[in-house]
């Protein structure tokens, strides 16, 4: 039955309803060999395969999360209070898997702030993921660096990370308000206070100092973009809220437009070939916490390509069900927003995002008879069951 420990490299999931790129296959059989899907809808199981009974279950492609930073709350649950990184990242990994996320782009902010969003912390997280984390982390972890334009220190180190393939997505961020008169000024100061032990006076002094250097990083940004292009590393823009910013993103060759402010700007992003990425919590909560474009509006206006967890992992699993329930898209279309389309945007569609021969065997088994909140039965990464929630016997 589903959930039995599987150690063989040959696995057959039998009698399961399979979501493929061409739609559902009823009561099919999926063969997996050496971590890869090798056959879909096979009638007979060849000799030597471990059989997993998927009768009554549905098989969905594993979720690919291009932008998620909820791990910050595992590392720093209270301002200035840090949990040892290994404990925090393993806890975070379990939360990812519980939400069906099999590929996670760990969205690490490379900022001028001290502490949680500092270059030092970014370096520690990367070292853990690429080092000891390979033993302990079960979800496939990749590195998404969210570089703040005003962070001009350590430029050579960041270039080295790009050159050596440590970074899988590079996004260019500019969260720094232009002037103290901007409406978001105090909100920004308070957000830093929630992540550090600095006083508001110290934070204000830091931000004022950084403002003086904000344009010193322009040449550095162009260098980073050039390296990313040379290495075929997808580039992301963040919070484009003017036509000028969208035009700059187009000039830079941005592949992923994170959270454009409105329908018109999102459409412009798509027009120059960028995939529009929106946050799943926006949908689950009923709108943007910043009062910008909602996911519902983006779907109705056909200006959305992908969903991400942003700051809440479970929302990413719930969203396709909610989208289908509200009649905004079919479930099949909605699930592509968290699987095949993010894979394509991140340039890993040749390896992940679909249940099809030749791709990595990352998938979920869910029970349609259970409420969505508790429907995940098993999570598989590279053909290995890494999470199992036993079905309750009636």
TrEMBL record:
Protein source organism: Cylindrospermopsis curvispora GIHE-G1
Protein name: Alpha-D-ribose 1-methylphosphonate 5-triphosphate diphosphatase
Biological process (GO), any one: organic phosphonate catabolic process
Domain of life of the native organism: Bacteria
PANTHER family: ALPHA-D-RIBOSE 1-METHYLPHOSPHONATE 5-TRIPHOSPHATE DIPHOSPHATASE
Keyword Metal-binding set for record: no
Gene3D superfamilies documented for this protein: Metal-dependent hydrolases (3.20.20.140), Urease, subunit C, domain 1 (2.30.40.10)
Record key words, sorted: Hydrolase
GO MF entries: hydrolase activity, acting on carbon-nitrogen (but not peptide) bonds
InterPro entries to which the protein is assigned, alphabetical: Amidohydro-rel, Metal-dep_hydrolase_composite, Metal_Hydrolase, Metallo-dep_Hydrolase, PhnM
E.C. designation(s): 3.6.1.63
UniProt xrefs under SUPFAM superfamilies: Composite domain of metallo-dependent hydrolases, Metallo-dependent hydrolases
Domain Amidohydrolase-related, chain residue ranges per copy: 144-386
């Amino acid at each position: 039955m589903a959930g039995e420990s599987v150690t063989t490299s040959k696995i057959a999931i039998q009698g399961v309803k399979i979501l493929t790129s061409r739609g559902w296959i009823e009561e099919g059989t999926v063969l997996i060999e050496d971590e890869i899907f090798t056959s879909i809808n096979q009638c007979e199981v060849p000799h030597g395969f471990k059989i997993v009974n998927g009768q009554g279950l549905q098989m969905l492609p594993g979720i690919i999360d291009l932008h998620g930073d909820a791990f910050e709350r595992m590392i720093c649950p209270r301002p200035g209070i840090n949990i040892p990184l290994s404990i925090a990242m393993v806890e975070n990994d379990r939360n990812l898997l519980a939400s069906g996320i099999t590929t996670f782009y760990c969205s690490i902010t490379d900022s001028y702030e001290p502490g949680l969003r500092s270059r030092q912390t970014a370096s520690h997280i990367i070292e853990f993921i690429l080092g000891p984390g390979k033993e302990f982390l079960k979800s496939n972890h990749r590195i998404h660096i969210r570089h703040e334009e005003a962070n001009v220190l350590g430029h050579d180190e960041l270039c080295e990370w790009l050159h050596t393939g440590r970074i899988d997505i590079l996004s260019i961020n500019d969260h720094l308000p232009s002037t103290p008169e901007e409406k978001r000024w105090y909100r920004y100061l308070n957000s830093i206070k929630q992540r550090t032990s600095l006083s508001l006076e110290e934070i204000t002094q830091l931000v004022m100092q950084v403002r003086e250097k904000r344009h010193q990083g322009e040449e550095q940004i162009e260098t980073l973009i050039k390296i990313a292009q040379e290495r075929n590393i997808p580039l992301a823009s963040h919070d484009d809220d003017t036509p000028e910013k969208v035009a700059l993103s187009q000039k830079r060759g941005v592949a992923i437009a994170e959270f454009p402010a409105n329908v018109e700007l999102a459409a412009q992003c798509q027009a120059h070939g960028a995939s529009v990425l929106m946050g799943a919590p926006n949908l689950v909560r009923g709108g943007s916490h910043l009062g910008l474009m909602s996911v519902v509006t983006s779907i109705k206006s056909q200006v959305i390509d992908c969903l991400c967890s942003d700051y809440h992992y479970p929302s990413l699993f719930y969203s396709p069900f909610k989208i289908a329930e509200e009649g905004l898209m079919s479930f099949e279309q909605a699930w592509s927003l968290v699987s095949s389309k993010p894979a394509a945007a991140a340039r890993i569609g040749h390896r992940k995002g679909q249940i099809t021969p030749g791709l990595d065997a990352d998938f979920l088994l869910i029970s349609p008879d259970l409420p969505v909140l508790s429907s995940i039965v098993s999570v598989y990464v590279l053909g290995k069951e890494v999470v199992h929630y036993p079905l309750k016997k009636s």
